[in-house]
Amino acid sequence: MRTTTRSTTEAPWVRRTLIGVALVFLTLFLFIPLATVFIEAFKKGWAVYAAAITDDDALSAIQLTLIAAAVSVPLNVVFGVAAAWCIAKFEFHGKSVLLTLIDLPFSVSPVVSGLIYVLVFGLQGWTGEWLRDHDLKVIFAVPGIVLATVFVTFPFVARELIPLMQAQGCEQEEAAVVLGASGWQMFRRVTLPNIRWALLYGVILCNARAMGEFGAVSVVSGHIRGQTNTVPLHIEILYNEYQFAAAFAVASLLAGLALVTLGLKYIVEQRVKAQLSSARQDNGSTPA
Questions:
Q1: Residue 153's closest CA among 197, 201, 105?
Q2: Nearest to 199 by CA among 249, 155, 242, 157
Q3: Following DSSP, what letter does each residue of 81-119 receive, concatenated?
Q4: In terms of Cα–Cα distance, which of 259, 226, 210 is closest to 31?
Q5: Are the C-beta atoms of 218 and 233 separated by less than 8 Å?
Q6: pLDDT tens digits for 15-35?
Q7: pLDDT in tens, 155-176
Q8: Whole-model pTM?
């Protein structure tokens, strides 16, 4: 007789209760607020919605947000791949320190990171006089926004690649070197195909955080309307001015981005899990 094993020993009513509590929590704190954003955005009609998202200040905020993401994501890809390669493929002094530093943006408030940039690059900061003498502006300008965005997003790519590259080991790269492959050929034909899904997953998360960042960007932007406001900052200004329909209209763009990100995240996550499981099986079956 075939018997089935249960993964848990709790009574059915306990599992149902826990699932019900989770669904109630998600409904109250996720689904209802998300639905409210779209309901309020279209509450006064399509004309008001279109006017809000095509306003000059809104378009400027969207453009600046895209610029910040377009600069920070590629930089974080380069850093993430390099850091993951070093940590997964080599042993060196300070490896644990590097891992800790990668996680630093997760433990430091974005507002604090923004204040750090003001301290370094502000007019009264460490390099303020030199920047002023050379007519260079970082704080309250696009460079400061990009720097703040890079800081809060740089762990995402590295943290997705490190576990996968550690599970894959070094055998395939070593075999490629033995067969005469150059460093670039090894990376392009061996390493990159093996990490492509995890890399894409990290890029998706990094891009979503870059476009939705508020705290650090708020500190370094100066809130100059039409110049240094990103989409989240523009939403705050509209809401504070009691332009609720416009605020929710612009907010619906970020909400839509979140939904698209979740969909892509789920699809890529399944690929990453399958790739990670395959890598662990292959690594475990490799003869010593």
A1: 105
A2: 157
A3: HHHHHHHHH---TTHHHHHHHHTHHHHS-HHHHHHHHHH
A4: 259
A5: yes
A6: 889 999 999 998 999 889 989
A7: 999 998 998 888 888 888 778 8
A8: 0.83
